Amino acid sequence: MGRNLEHEFSMLVREIRKEYVGNGPKEISTRFIGNWAISEMRGNLTNVEKFMITSEQGRQTVHEARTKLVKEIYKRPEVLVKFEKLTGTRVVRLFSDLNIEEDIAMTVFVFEDEVQRKQG
Asked: Which structural domain range is residue 14 located in?
């Protein structure tokens, strides 16, 4: 029995975040709805970021830096091709945000076609 696509997608998100951000989220869950993949990530912040968010300026800095960094990561062709190979369809758009207080990030991948679940 093979892994399901949601799990494989979540592991790819973790791998990419670790490679480009330096740490990956502690928990990830991904759901596919039509041509969307929605990944919810908990436990994203580093110890330095947790210290920084104790001030309003720190919260703004961490939120802005994390949000911009994630969007830049997913513009890289070598990153996109990994998701496209896994799902069998092209990434056309990405939305990402981070709730600093709850340490929860959401990324919505929009694909050209509906993502077909792999049969176990």
From this structure: 5-111
